[in-house]
Every structure is written in structure tokens, then in C-alpha cells.
């Protein structure tokens, strides 16, 4: 079969690789749609160390079951599925506490050295499968995983009815966070990004105010629109030092800051601001029960991910798409490959 094999920084050619075989408790999923994630782009450049060559990336995907391993009884060949890619042990303290997303022994499809879905087919443990309703298109199934991340961030953040929210970053996760916060009952939503295209998308998805901080003073706008003290909730969806610091500065005393961004491993933060203004800062990672709820949100029409998918292309186009994203030659919000 064909697969995109990550062979080292800036190297991910199309290769012929052996077809996967199901082990006990596994199924083979023929991949119908797989999203290109920002973490894959960072992995492609070698900047994160979270992709170990040679391996196949791709963890946002849907498809159809084509083969069953021994002991698989809950699924059948021909089932439409969307795959939750986090592989957890189920026995560590975190898993037992209901925090499987931060399992002490976790791995994941398309992450580190485990092959994922930038391929015509992939082996999947049956416990990671969710039914994909017939009315949900394959490419929408590929958006379930990133929507789950946004919904988890909104769930972990104290948002009540009409709470104003500031979102820093209008990439895929930041945009989906707009929708997730709306589901939670958020009031005014202000979104900041340097890209005019992404800000236009944020507006289309329901942001009340969009700000390009290179052209306007975001702090002045937040304090003028929400209140002089700052915002009660700020969500950072970029993962770099400037926006991490900005998230603290925009929060009001007693406010809540949530970090989803996961790009820069270490940042310098004004600890005194956090302490003296009693700001709560929390990191969020992945998802737990939100995965199933994300499927429900898309199926019901409460969340429409259609505008975010700006490019659908065959698997063979993947290397060029990822390289263009890594080099900043394109500003596509979400590309989906169709093996």
C-alpha cells in the first residue's frame, strides 16, 4: 500500500509499504479521510521530537473496517468508524482517576514511533473505534479529534452563561474553540490572530470581535469591550512565549487562563502577575469523554466544521502540502487527505 513515511526532518516521501495485518483485538481501517495537523507539520520539521523516524504520521481520521483480528466482536467489516488516536494503559493512577488523556504510559497512532493514517490503511486497536454515523461525511469525521481537543479545553475552563472569552490564535484549534465555547454558553468572544484570512474565518464562525495585534492594541480592545480589569477567561491556542505572556496580561484579577497551545517547550512567564493578581493558569491536553460528544455535536448540526476544511487532496499531494505549510507558503486552515 501507499503511505507517507517520515524519514527525518523535512523528508516525508510517498512509499510502498507492506499492508498492515490485524493482531488480536485489532481491526484494519481503510482510511477515507485524514486531517493534516499542526503537530504533524512541526514533527515534519523535527522541531518537536514527537515523531521518531521512520514512521507514518496522521492521527485525525475516519474510514471503513476492512479486516478483523481475533477476538473482535463489537465491530464488523464494512463499519464506518472514526478513530480516537490516544493509546492508554487503563491502569495507571491517572487512568484510574478518569484522566486517560494524561496516561502515564500513553502513546498514540501517528505519534512518536507508532504508525498512523497518512496511508491507505492502518491497524487500530478495537477500543479506539467509534461509530461514524452514515450522515456524517468522511472529512467531517477527520475533524472529530481536533474538535474534541477544543471541547475539552472549554470543559476545563470555568465558562458560564454569557462569560466573555478571549481566544489567542485562529488556527484549527482556536477556531474550533470558538464553537466549543459557544456550546458552553459563552457571551462575547474576541479572537486575536496575525492572519487576515483566519480572522475572517473566526468572524464567520461566530467571533464577536476579531483583532490583528500587529495593527491594533489588543489589550485596549479587550478592556474597552469587556471591562477595564481585563477578561475573565483567556484561552491560548498558539503555544509560543509572546501569546503565553499575553494571555496572563489580558486576564483580570481572579481570572482564568487556559493553555491549549503546545509548540514551544519552554516559555518565560511573569510569575508575579499570576501571584499578585490571583490568576489561575491551567494546561489542557487532548480529551476524554469529549470525543464521543464531538461526534454528537457534528451529527446534530450544533457544530458545523465545513468552513474550516479548506483543502481536500489525494494522499500523494500530502508531502507538498505539509512542506508548504511548514515553510509558510500556504495559509490553509485545515487540509484533509483522502487515501
Overview of the structural elements:
The protein has 339 residues and is α/β, with parallel strands linked by helices. The protein has 2 domains: 2-143 and 305-337, Medium-chain alcohol dehydrogenases, catalytic domain (Quinone Oxidoreductase, Chain A, domain 1), CATH 3.90.180.10; 150-283, 3-Layer(aba) Sandwich (Rossmann fold), CATH 3.40.50.720. 28% of the residues lie in helices and 24% in strands. It contains 11 helices and 17 strands. The strands form 4 sheets. Strands 3, 4, 5, 8, 9, 16 and 17 form a 7-stranded mixed β-sheet that branches. Strands 12-11-10-13-14-15 form a 6-stranded parallel β-sheet, with helices on both faces. A two-stranded antiparallel ribbon has the order 1-2. α1 packs across α11. The longest helix has 13 residues, at 144-156. The N and C termini lie close together (10 Å). The mean pLDDT is 97.
Describe the main β-sheet briefly: 7 strands, mixed
Cα distance spanning the termini: 10 Å
Find the count of extended strands (DSSP E, 2+ residues).
17
The general outline is globular
Comma- or semicolon-separated keywords:
339 residues, alpha/beta, Quinone Oxidoreductase, Chain A, domain 1, Rossmann fold, 2 domains, seven-stranded mixed β-sheet, six-stranded parallel β-sheet, 11 helices, 24% strand, globular
What does the secondary structure layout of this molecule look like, with pairings?
Blueprint: E1 2-4, E2 14-16, E3 26-35, H1 38-45, E4 60-68, E5 80-83, E6 86-87, H2 93-96, E7 107-108, E8 121-125, E9 129-131, H3 138-141, H4 144-156, E10 165-168, H5 172-183, E11 189-192, H6 196-204, E12 209-211, H7 218-225, E13 231-236, H8 241-250, E14 251-259, H9 271-276, E15 280-283, H10 290-300, E16 309-313, H11 318-326, E17 334-337
Parallel strand pairs: 10-11, 10-13, 11-12, 13-14, 14-15, 16-17
Antiparallel strand pairs: 1-2, 3-4, 3-8, 3-17, 4-5, 5-9, 6-7
Helix pairs in contact: 1-11, 4-5, 4-10
